[in-house]
Amino acid sequence: MIAGLNVLRIINEPLLKAIAYGLDRTGCASPERNVPFFYLGGGTFDLSILTIDNGFFKVKATAGDTHLGGEDFDNRLVSHFVEEFKRKHKKDISQNKRAVGRCARCARGLTGR
């Protein structure tokens, strides 16, 4: 028991993603295939390769980077905007918290966060 629940089976994150994506219901009788799963979180990037064969899943490989995620993309976009502003207007706004904050809001808007 965990937290008062009777645990029948514990599955790993890549399998959970496959099930959430609906691959457990699509083409159960289909031939064996390898499917990549990418996850880009706020601070992590994960990749898993699953083999799906007749409705059964097997995790073939999984890897990730806990220091690469959506926030890193946002920060890179902010740096790009600051450099573009400097190039176009010959003014460095990198020390202006308000201006950098506006760039950050713009970056988050572009990345959907």
UniProtKB/TrEMBL annotation:
Cited InterPro entries: ATPase_NBD (IPR043129), Hsp_70_fam (IPR013126)
Source organism, top-level taxon: Eukaryota
Keywords per UniProt: ATP-binding, Nucleotide-binding, Stress response
Membrane-spanning intervals of the chain: none
GO MF annotations in UniProt: ATP binding; ATP-dependent protein folding chaperone
Pfam families: HSP70 (PF00012)
Family of this protein: Belongs to the heat shock protein 70 family.
Record protein name field: Heat shock protein 70
Species assigned in the record: Thalassoma pavo
